[in-house]
From TrEMBL:
Organism: Alkalicoccobacillus gibsonii
Transmembrane segments: 78-100, 112-132, 144-175, 195-216, 293-314, 326-344, 350-370
Primary location recorded for the protein, binned into one broad class: membrane
Domain of life: Bacteria
Gene that encodes the chain: chrA
Topology term for the membrane: Multi-pass membrane protein
Protein name as annotated: Chromate efflux transporter
Keyword terms, alphabetized: Cell membrane, Membrane, Transmembrane, Transmembrane helix
Family matches, as PANTHER family: CHROMATE ION TRANSPORTER (EUROFUNG)
Stated family: Belongs to the chromate ion transporter (CHR) (TC 2.A.51) family.
Record's subcellular location: Cell membrane
The keyword Membrane appears for this protein: yes
Amino acid sequence: MTYFQKLLEILVVSTKLGLTSFGGPIAHLGYFREEYVNKRKWLTDKAYADLVALCQFLPGPASSQVGIGIGVSRAGTLGGFISFIGFTMPSVLALILFVFLANQFNVMDAGFIQGLKLTAVAVVAHAIIGMAANLAPDLKRKTIVLFSLLATLLIPHVLTQVSVIVIAGIIGWILFKGIQTTQTESFSIPLSKTVGAVCLALFFILLAGLPFLATWMSSTWISMIDSFYRSGSLVFGGGHVVLPLLEREFVPTGLISEESFLAGYGAAQAVPGPLFTFAAYIGADMAGWTGGFIATAAIFLPAFLLIFGTLPFWSSLSQNKQMKAALLGVNAAVVGILISAFYQPIWLSAIGSTIDFALAALLFFMLAYWKLPPWTVVVAGAIGGQLLTLL
């Protein structure tokens, strides 16, 4: 098979996954394993598990980073980009089109928008319960959850979230240094340590430098890129956690209304692919098609820099007990941040009556206990919201 044929194969397979992978990052990893490990034998089950371990260790969209890593292992750096495009573009295009239709027909006051907001209540509640069980199983981590919740709820600022994550990492390093964790082995990848070091350096340079550049230049575009890049750099625990970061970047400043933000979040549940593509909706709502694609590039750029930067060093990094201990504290803090976002803005803006709560409870039950696909829950929420207008 020629190199071009490999790239074409990656594009076809990843696009198929991008069109059909509903259910969030855990479901995506299941689809990936079935397609890439069981069906196509592109890598072994153990190599896949090692790659998943690395991507869960890093901030950012874990499923997208796994897809990028598989593309790199198959066809080098270009293979990683092609894999990302195939998996991500279907949902990006769908959400940008949703913005266009919503603005064209002025549907933000329609009943189904309220239904999408109630769907967001059900989806985030389900995510919180699952994450809390896995990431805060003991009293120490539950306490970290509580104080992270209190800090982000009482001091609603993006610097609070960053501070909470840093402090939780330090506390985790202190408390959990002796905890036993699963050992992993290195994942072979055709990237040099020089490339890795450059990517990691660029990641931190942009993270520190973009805020200063945005202030100095007073450019709306630079400010938007900074906000999306920073959000993509600070998300541990999956796509749902990007919600509070994006909400506090764009809603208080009036760049996007709270109603439009939550409607888009509900719509993002209805499309396959990574939830990080919600950035495309926000960018398109702010600045049209161009804004949608720039927002997508900005929020996913940290994922590329981190996966390219850490793959060459993963063998030693994965065995570092101090890093693992710090991550236990960070993951617990993520749960607290998510609960804070669940209350404000999701709950306060969506639940306004008994009937709202009843519909949200029904949607939650459909997702959590009847195990219905997320897209069917979104459709049910939209229909239910529209029916509420008739009562």
